[in-house]
Every structure is written in structure tokens, then in C-alpha cells.
Amino acid sequence: MKFIHTADWHLGKLLKEHSMTEDQEWLLNNRFLPLVDEEKPDAILLSGDVYDRSYPPEEAVELFDRMTEEIVGKRKIPFIIISGNHDSAERLAVASRLLKWQGLYIFGPLTHLSPVILEDEWGKVAFCPLPYAEPARVRVMMNVLGLEGAEDVHSYEDAEKALSDYLLSLLPDEPMRKVALAHAFAAGGTPSESERPLSIGGYDRIGDTVFEGYDYTALGHLHRPQKTQKDSEKIQYSGSLMRYSFDEVNQKKGVILCDLDKDGKVHTEFKEMVPRYQVRCMEGAFDVLMGEETEPSDDYLQIRLTDEAPVIDAMPKLRAKFPHALGVEQDMGYKEDEGNRDIHLEQMSDEDILKRFVHQFRDRDLSEDEEKLALDTWERVYRKENAQ
Ligand SMILES: [Mn+2]
Fold first, then answer.
1. Cα of 59 to ligand 1 centre, how many Å?
2. Are 15 and 223 spatial neighbours (Cβ–Cβ below 8 Å)?
3. Distance 356 CA to ligand 1 centre (A)
4. CA distance readout (Å), 260 to 6, 118, 178, 229, 240
5. Could you tell me which of 255, 265, 270 has the C-alpha nearest to residue 46?
6. C-alpha distance from residue 344 to each of 98, 341, 347, 349 (Å)
7. What is the pLDDT of residue 370?
8. Which of 63, 123, 220, 277 has the fewest CB atoms lying closer than 10 Å?
9. Which CA distances in Å does 285 have to 120, 192, 305, 313?
10. pTM of the prediction?
11. Among 255, 223, 218, 211, residue whose Cα is nearest residue 236
């Protein structure tokens, strides 16, 4: 059984107020679908955070709608989706009890979960959907369904285990290979800035043992592609569709191609998907960046200016050459304030105050030119004051 594991599409994502939807569409059309056509998987798994927010913008909903048509309608590939912490489980799963007959399996609300059983030449493979769920919601679900043990569910790990046990209990009593889809923070995983924490203080971390009964676990939530166990391919994060924060600029983004053999051993391969415009950082002096030696770029840029003197109105000037410059910062070599408050300004000359200021922030004295400029400026200011 060959399947593609993807997660954290975050359709409709804004990166510093800039909508990424067009780039997401470009990537899905020009990287993802061609990969699907090349690999012809038996299923596609999307492990949560389809959208960036519970009320996604219209163009994001339209994009998701079109992708389901491309995958399930045109290509007849079963598409299994769970909701993540950014999705509204109910809105994402609208009409899902009808859509499953078409091969589009969307799981959100916890009271409507069931394994999806697909078959290949070696037999059955059960895909168990474990959507994102806070412990309180799992307790409610267990009470509604009349399951025992709701009062013992306190942590995210308890909740995930209870969900998993429930899904496994629904399987027919015969041996089969098993795959889990989950949206959770596996302990040992490395987070990025673009994930919204599930809870405060590490309470959201769950141990790998929850997924022991599965041949493969397709995780969503952490945006960096990673294995949770060093020497095992069995539990992995595919990572997000694109880079969604500037601390992800060194991460490759893509999907995981999984091949489950007849014994349930999984062989995986990460397939990078390079976007139209990359999210990256750029550093240099203003004149160098604006000069011929630097190529213009449509990439999403966080620009760090290395000039020592302030650059006035840097952003509009930079945007003429780098239209997707989203942030600019300048390190003028300032030192941290050492907190020395033993200063009596009224007893110091203006010149001494300036010298002290420069020394404290730049860790050097005024140059001769700077000192001359300061004195000239003062003189002109004093002359103006005296003339009034
Ligand atoms: Mn996410």
C-alpha cells in the first residue's frame, strides 16, 4: 500500500498580513498534484490544520474544494483528512457522512469517528483517524457514546490513548495492518514559531507509546518535518505545506511518500516541494541590497540591514525591488543598557552626554568627523535659539 502523508496546509494563512493563498494554490497545482500523478498513491492522508483558522477566508475554502475534486473526483484516490487545532472540526467535516461514499473521508467531531479500511494485494489496511482533541472533549465524547473510563482522561496523552483505543475497538477481529492519523505534540518533537501551542507548560506533550499498535503514524501539528524516534520511520511529522514563519527558513518542506509492505513494515521517502516564492531572510548593507550586485526577488523576505547609520524609510525603498519584503530590522551595533543609573545629566555638558550615550550603545567613542558634525549642529542650534 502506497500513500502520501501530508499535514498542516494552513490554507488562507497570512504571513505578516500577506495572504499566502495564491502561493498555496500554485504549490498544490504545480508541485503536489504532479507528484500525485507521478507516484499514483493508493491513498492520501492529511493530518490536520487544513485551514489556518476556524473561519477560513472564502478563497481558502474554494481551494480546498477544488483539491478534493482533483484528488477524489478526477483521480479517484481516497483522501483521508482529520481536523487540527486550527480547524473547526464541525465546519471542516460538513456532509462528511455522505462524502465518505465518494472516497472523501473527513473526520472532525469525535462522535463520528470510524476507521477507513482499504485493501491492496496483501490484504486490509486500517486507517484510524485521531483528530485534534482536548481531554475535556474526549471525556464528553466517551460519555455520549457510553464508553467507560472517561473520568480517567486528564492529560492530552490520556485523551489520545482513549481515542486510539476506541478506534481500534471498532476494527473487525482479524489481523490487519494499521495506520494512525493524529494531530498532536509528540514528546521529543521540535516546534517552530508558526504553530499555535495546544496548551501552556508542556501539558500537551504525549508519549510515543500511544502509537505502539500502529505500523505507521502520520502526524500533524509540528511544522518541521521530523521523525519522533531517531532510528525508526514509524512515527513521523510530514511538516507544513510551506514555511509559515521566519524561523523555518532552513527547513525543507514537502510530503512523505510511504510504502507499507505486506508485513506492515513501512518504507518512507521525503519529497521536497519547492514553492514559487520562498520564505527566507536576507542580510546586508542597504546600498549593497539595492545595488546591481543583488538580484531582485519576489521571495518573502525578512531583511536585516547591517548599516551603522539609520536608513530612513527603508521599507518602501526596499519594496520597489523586493515586493514581498515583509519585515526590515536594523542592527546598529547597539549594546544592551547596563543599567547604570549613577548619572547626573544636569552636571554634564551636552557634548559629554552625547559621548557617553555613544559609548554606552556602540561601545566606542565618537569619530573625529562625528564629533565635528555634532559640534557644528549644536552651534547652529544655539545660534538659532539665541537669535529668537
Ligand atoms: Mn499547524
1. 19
2. no
3. 48
4. 16, 12, 10, 18, 23
5. 255
6. 77, 9, 6, 10
7. 87
8. 123
9. 58, 28, 5, 14
10. 0.86
11. 218
Cα separation values, 110 from 59, 144, 169, Å: 27, 10, 15
DSSP state at residue 335: P
70-115 pLDDT, tens digit per residue, is 999 999 999 999 999 999 999 999 999 999 999 999 999 999 999 9
Residue 116 Cα to ligand 1 midpoint, Å, equals 23
220 CA from centroid of ligand 1 (Å): 7
CA of 250 to the centre of ligand 1 (A): 18
Residue with cell 482499504: 118
- Rounded to the nearest angstrom, the distance between the alpha carbon of 34 and the centre of ligand 1 is 24
**Residue 35: strand, helix, or coil:** helix
Instruction: Give 304's contacts (C-beta < 8 A, 6+ positions apart).
Output: 281, 282, 283, 284, 328, 329, 330, 331
- Count of C-beta atoms within a 10 Å radius of residue 148: 7
Angle, alpha carbons 47-239-52 (nearest 5°) = 65
Cα-Cα end-to-end distance for the chain: 88
Rg (CA), the chain: 28
**Distance from the alpha carbon of residue 15 to the mean position of ligand 1, in angstroms:** 14
**Ligand 1 centre distance from Cα of residue 325 (Å):** 24
pLDDT in tens, 279-291: 999 999 999 999 9
What's phi and psi for 86, nearest 5 deg? Answer: -85, -20
Query: How far away, in angstroms, is 228 Cα from ligand 1 center?
Result: 17
Ligand 1 mean position, distance from CA 200 (Å)? 16
Alpha helices, DSSP H, located in the chain: 21-27, 33-39, 58-68, 89-92, 96-99, 135-144, 156-169, 286-290, 314-321, 350-362, 368-387
Looking at residue 381, its pLDDT comes to: 84
Q: How far is the CA of 283 from the centre of ligand 1 (A)?
A: 28
Alpha carbon of 183 to ligand 1 centroid (Å): 9
Distance CA(289)–CA(282), nearest Å, equals 9
pLDDT at 11 over 70: yes
Residues 259, 2: contact at Cβ < 8 Å? yes
Q: Could you tell me the distance, in angstroms and rounded to a whole number, from the CA of residue 8 to the centre of ligand 1?
A: 5
